[in-house]
Amino acid sequence: MNATVLQRMMQVSPFPVLEVRLNNGDVVRVDEPYEITIDKGDPCFTVHEGNTTHFVAYRNVTQILRRQPE
């Protein structure tokens, strides 16, 4: 997983809900593409999920699942 792959996933239209699964078992949900902040030179990305901000290192991502919006 890297910034380029994640940016491609964010450009899909209509945007599917993403579930980012981490190697510690946590799941970070992304409902809209604007909830993710990416800097190509940074080893992590930021997800704004409700009132919580997650700083996620690409190396900790084990899987990203695409879900249909509810």
Could you explain how this protein is built, in words?
- Helix content is 11%, strand content 44%.
- By secondary structure, the protein is mainly beta.
- The strands form two sheets. The chain has a three-stranded antiparallel beta sheet with strand order 2-1-6, with no helix packed on it. A three-stranded antiparallel beta sheet has the order 3-4-5, with no helix packed on it.
- The protein starts with a helix and ends with a strand.
- The model has no long low-confidence stretch (mean pLDDT 90).
Quick structural summary:
The protein has 70 residues and is mainly beta. It is built from one helix and six strands; from the N terminus they run αββββββ.
Key terms:
3-stranded antiparallel beta sheet; 6 strands; 1 helix; 44% strand; 70 residues; mainly beta; 11% helix
Task: Summarize the topology.
Blueprint: H1 3-10, E1 17-22, E2 27-30, E3 36-37, E4 44-49, E5 52-57, E6 61-67
Antiparallel strand pairs: 1-2, 1-6, 3-4, 4-5
How confident overall, as mean pLDDT? 90
Task: Characterize the overall form.
Answer: globular
Report the C-alpha radius of gyration, rounded. 11 Å
Low-confidence stretches: none
The secondary structure category is mainly beta
Order the strands across the largest sheet as they lie in space.
2-1-6
Give the H and E element order: HEEEEEE
- Report the sheet-strand fraction: 35-45%
| Separation of the first and last Cα atoms | 26 Å
Helical region count?
1
Q: Tally of extended strands?
A: 6
Major sheet details: 3 strands, antiparallel
Give helix % range. Answer: 10-25%
